[in-house]
Write a structure and sequence with these properties.
The complex is a heterodimer of chains A (about 300) and B (about 675).
Chain A: E1 7-9, H1 20-32, E2 37-39, H2 48-54, H3 56-73, E3 77-79, H4 83-98, H5 100-112, E4 122-124, H6 126-134, H7 136-142, E5 151-154, H8 175-182, E6 186-187, H9 201-204, H10 206-222, E7 227-230, H11 233-241, H12 243-250, E8 258-260, H13 261-268, H14 285-292, H15 294-300
Chain B: E1 11-16, H1 28-36, E2 41-47, H2 53-65, E3 70-75, H3 78-91, E4 99-103, H4 105-109, H5 115-133, E5 142-145, E6 150-153, H6 157-168, E7 173-176, E8 191-192, E9 197-198, H7 199-212, E10 216-219, E11 222-230, E12 233-240, H8 255-259, E13 267-268, E14 277-278, E15 281-282, E16 294-295, H9 301-305, H10 311-315, E17 329-335, E18 337-340, E19 344-346, E20 363-365, H11 366-373, E21 393-400, H12 415-430, E22 433-438, H13 448-457, E23 461-464, E24 467-471, E25 483-489, E26 494-500, E27 502-507, E28 509-511, H14 515-522, E29 549-551, H15 561-581, E30 583-586, E31 591-593, H16 604-607, E32 613-616, E33 621-624, H17 634-638, E34 644-646, H18 651-662
Helix pairs in contact in B: 1-5, 2-3, 5-18, 6-7, 6-15, 11-12, 12-13
The chains are: A alpha/beta (about 300), B alpha/beta (about 675).
């Protein structure tokens, strides 16, 4: 095993699929911040929240394998950018810590697989790494260009801050606002930061899912936001993908860019349009191009 | 055991059944029979209730008729009945310290279920006591005289009531309050539940009475900074902070406030919870006692920069009460006992950001609304939102910072009734729809349930559920511009969104921020929640473990005004009784120095937590002040030459007891 980087990166399924722009922007941002990052070799599905509700023990085993693989590399920080991955990995740790039966089963399983025990791996989220490890001051110093006069709403989704409160305050999260301000974005007060985006309802009970999307988009517009900044691939996809449908249903002029935090930060640090995955936007393509293309860049340099 | 210095030892053993408490688990007859076989024991008896009159009579008869001169009582905890049996022995002519208790209830029958093993354990414990009591010596209780003066710390309703009660009995009282006026939280309230009589109308006469009372010395804007000594003679130093106005000269005409160079009030008015402004020179409220202005050194230009035209001085030129050179001063007093009534602070709802306090201007605390509904408050009694609207719908959220694992676990006891009162008053003032969000309504108290029914009948809406959040996002036009309470109504099982113009958070009561300092200063204890600890939760709820120090009011735990006044009266009665007795009896379990053996190494001196040991330079020996010694035994254990001994805990007493408990029954 080659000497591991400080941050082990656990992509999960989304960041290799619909959320590819998240992966692109994350890796670019970490490169620009000179944070060594390396993908976890041989990772598997996190199990997501659905498996947890079917069988806690089996779901824990699935997540535990990833944690054990991380342990084997000798790195302590396992970066899980997807909120569902983050929560599932964190929850597995808690279940193993507090439920002896699950702990025994997990230990037996890991032993059979020839994997080490689970201790001392920290599950990390990029938001909290930017806030704690890099810091607001450093981000401000490293910012090379600012979006002049663009107002954004920060949106966490349901799984990042609850229940563990390690990514941000569970009741009143503000770290994303601070990061965005540090890199020169104007932030609007958005009370729906942790409201449900519809999750997988958009695929199963479509009407309900889209309705929940609509509430979030509508309220962001009402508060003068021109874009919503997310940290979860499912939230991003839901908010991004159904705006045309909402336009058709409601007749409201809705075409708002839904960005990843790492896209906004990465661009401020000097990242290029395509390497940040900005070309993959579904909604709000025009403003995205206008804000983030090289032509515009020259004018907005600090 | 040698036949020895204490003469012929004749031990009586008395085993109590405590009804069924002991006898159900311990074979008391077997224990008594076994005790009778032990060396030195001349009689052993068992009885159903040894603490009753006939039970005590058994002991006394044996002392008189069988010449019993050592008594072992195997019953309950000594903290319950040691004094009972010592008294019985004394009345029969025996020194009370020849009595030893064995706790076979709390330490045995209550915690075991195996009868045989519990009986064996009782025998072991009795044997240990029999061996120990053999070596007991006659001791004398020490008496310390009591100063009749009483110090009351804190001038809220608890301190005021306690001070007046003690003063009325003819004792001298010092009342120390750290704010510029007495009155405490109660002075801020509008009406009081459940009778709705106005708080000021019942409080301010008592405040004036304090000021006028010949037996009360009132020091406001003052704090206790040190406490030395012990029951009967506490030496207390009080710091009097400079108010830059001479209390003896100011008559409270308030002209200085009118002429202050600040034309408009600019600084947050603490009494009105920041809902109005005051000037640098101010009086907290019109009925403040003493009616003396005070200057805020953080706001006054003269005190901050020395460059003000000092128009206040001109207004007061005749009396000359304003004194910018005033310095803090210290008073030293001696008192026999102390009543601590330092009150509480309300929970800071910023700790629960989901309720938006500090973020949304129309989210208030109950204390702020008390000021709003008060006719002499910042709005003259108008209930209006911060943007000047009369609210059409108001929501009151209960248990904010109470009954909550994340903040404070205790019930603050007053919030249910306070909220019912405010719901009534808000409805009366505005006609608004009022919602109360509750977990349980707790209306236990005289006339309280009836008041709850009354408010129910007035049409206040009660929603059972803990509010998830207060938000400002509107789901439909009816919610535009309003605050929305999202709550699961657990009576109907639905999640509701209730649009509100004003939200009132019923904030809980918690210990003052500096309660720990007060606890250390006076040498008392706190319970886990941080409130001061009483000596016994049922039978001594105002005394503390420190003799001569009593607690009253919410500093002891959340309570309403009637309960506070009752406890204050009780604390005052204890202080009066102590002063009237004139002396206090101390346990003789103090340490003493065997002077011939003391090498003068001084190791013991810094170890004593009560500063009871001094060094006699002439003799080059340590000296223990018996009055200060609490009998903790630290110095006894630490003395390198073994020259410190302790009454009731002599080596031979302790070692015989240990041998006794370890020697297996034959």
């Amino acid at each position: 095993m080659e000497p591991s980087a400080k941050y082990l990166y656990y992509p999960g399924c989304s960041l290799k699929g619909t959320g590819i722009a998240y992966e692109e922007s994350l890796l670019t941002t970490f490169r620009l911040l000179e944070l060594p990052i390396q993908e976890l070799p041989d990772w598997n599905c996190c199990g997501a929240t659905t498996y947890m509700s079917v069988s806690e023990t089996s779901a824990t085993l699935l997540a535990a394998r990833n944690l054990a693989l991380a342990r084997r590399t000798g790195s302590r920080d396992l970066l899980a950018p997807c909120n569902a991955c983050y929560l599932t990995l964190r929850k597995s740790q808690e279940l193993v810590a507090h439920y002896p039966q699950i702990a025994q089963e997990t230990e037996r399983f890991l032993e059979q697989a020839g994997l080490p025990r689970l201790d001392s791996v920290r599950v990390r989220h990029p938001l909290e790494v930017l806030y704690n490890d890099v810091g607001i001051e450093r981000l401000r110093e490293l910012t090379v260009r600012r979006l002049q006069g663009v107002r954004m709403a920060s949106y966490y989704g349901c799984q990042a801050v609850r229940p563990y409160g390690e990514v941000d305050d569970p009741h009143n999260p503000t770290r994303m606002d601070e990061i965005l301000r540090a890199v020169g974005v104007e932030v609007v007060d958005y009370s729906l930061k942790t409201k449900c985006c519809g999750g997988s309802h958009t695929g199963t009970i479509h009407d309900v899912g889209v309705r929940l999307n609509y509430i979030l988009l509508k309220e962001a517009m009402r508060r003068g936001a021109q874009a919503i900044v997310t940290i979860c691939p499912l939230c991003q996809f839901n908010l991004d993908a159904y705006q045309a449908e909402i336009r058709k249903q409601t007749g409201e002029p809705m075409d708002m860019p839904i960005l990843y935090l790492t896209q906004v930060v990465g661009w401020a640090l000097g990242g290029e349009f395509r390497e940040l995955g900005l070309h993959r936007a579904i909604s709000g393509r025009k403003p995205v191009e206008q804000w983030f293309t090289a032509k515009k860049e020259a004018e907005t340099y600090v | 055991m040698s036949e020895q210095k204490n003469g012929q030892v004749r031990i009586g053993v008395y085993v109590c059944h405590c009804g069924a408490n002991i006898a159900d688990t311990v074979d008391v007859k077997a224990v008594a029979e076994y005790a009778a076989t032990l060396p030195g024991v001349v009689v052993a008896r068992d009885y159903k209730y040894m603490c009753s009159d006939p039970g005590q009579e058994l002991v006394q008869e044996d002392i008189r008729n069988l010449n019993v001169n050592r008594v072992v009582v195997a019953a309950c905890s000594p903290s319950l009945h040691e004094n009972t049996f010592r008294g019985a022995a004394e009345r029969a002519g025996l020194n009370p310290f020849f009595v030893q208790m064995v706790n076979i209830r709390e330490h045995d029958s209550w915690v075991h279920s195996d009868r045989e093993a519990a009986t064996e354990k009782a025998k072991d414990l009795v044997r240990a006591a029999v061996r120990r009591v053999y070596f007991h010596k006659p001791l004398e209780k020490r008496r310390v005289p009591i100063h009749s003066e009483v110090l009351v710390v804190g001038g809220g309703i608890a301190g005021i009531h306690a001070a007046l009660t003690v003063a009325d009995s003819g004792k001298k009282v010092y009342l120390v309050e750290r704010e510029p006026t007495i009155g405490g939280h109660m002075a801020q309230y509008d009406k009081t539940f459940p009778t709705l009589d106005c708080a000021a109308c019942i409080l301010t006469p008592k405040m004036s009475a304090v000021k006028a009372h010949p037996n009360i010395t009132l020091w406001t804007y003052s704090e206790v900074v040190s406490v030395d000594g012990s029951v009967g003679d506490y030496k207390v130093v009080v710091k009097r902070k400079p108010r830059y106005v001479r209390e003896d000269l100011c008559v409270g005409c308030l002209q200085c406030i009118d002429t202050c160079v600040f034309k408009e009030p600019k600084f947050d008015d603490e009494f009105n919870m920041g809902l109005s402004k005051r000037k640098p020179i101010y009086i907290p409220f019109p009925q403040a006692t003493p009616k003396v202005v005070v200057i805020d050194p953080e706001a006054c230009i003269q005190l901050k920069t020395g460059k003000c035209k000092k128009s206040c001085l001109e207004a007061c030129v005749e009396r000359g009460a304003i004194d910018f050179d005033q310095k803090e001063s210290y008073e030293e007093i001696h008192v026999g006992s102390i009543i601590i009534a330092t009150g509480f602070q309300t929970f800071d709802p910023r700790r629960m950001p989901q309720y938006g306090y500090g973020k949304y201007p129309n989210v208030y605390t109950t204390l702020e609304v008390e000021r709003l509904v008060n006719a002499s408050g910042p709005t003259g009694g108008q209930v209006v939102t911060r943007d000047g609207r009369v609210p059409k719908s108001v929501g009151i959220i209960l248990c904010v910072g109470s009954r909550d694992e994340n903040t404070n676990r205790w019930c603050s006891r007053v919030c249910c009734m306070t909220s019912l009162k405010l719901a009534h008053l808000i409805k009366e003032h505005t006609g608004a729809e009022v919602f109360i969000f509750y977990i349980d309504m707790r209306a236990a108290g005289k006339g309280y349930e009836e008041f709850y029914q009354r408010v129910l009948n007035e049409g206040v809406h009660f929603v059972r559920g803990r509010v998830a959040e207060i938000t400002d996002w509107a789901l439909d036009p009816s919610e535009e511009g309003k605050l929305v309470a999202r709550v699961e109504d657990t009576n109907t099982g639905f999640v509701r969104r209730i649009p509100l113009d004003m939200v009132v958070l019923a904030v809980g009561l918690e210990p003052q921020a500096d309660a720990l300092n007060v606890q250390r200063l006076f040498g008392i204890s706190c319970s886990l929640d941080g409130f001061f600890l009483e000596k016994h939760p049922k039978l001594a709820p105002a005394p503390t473990y420190t003799d001569g120090i009593f607690i009253a009011g919410v500093c002891h735990g959340p309570k309403d005004i009637p309960d506070t006044v009752m406890q204050a009266g009780y604390a005052a009665a204890e202080a009066i009784a102590l002063a009237d007795t004139g002396y206090f009896e101390l346990e003789p379990n103090t340490a003493y120095i065997v002077e011939e053996e003391c090498s003068g190494c001084k190791s013991c001196i810094p170890l004593c937590p009560y500063q009871a040991i001094t060094f006699n330079d002439g003799k080059q020996k340590a000296f223990i002040n018996e009055v200060l010694c609490k009998g903790c035994g630290t110095c006894v254990a630490a003395c390198p030459s073994g020259s410190i001994k302790q009454n009731l805990f002599e080596d031979e007493e302790i070692f015989s007891e240990i041998e006794g408990v370890l020697a297996y029954a034959q």
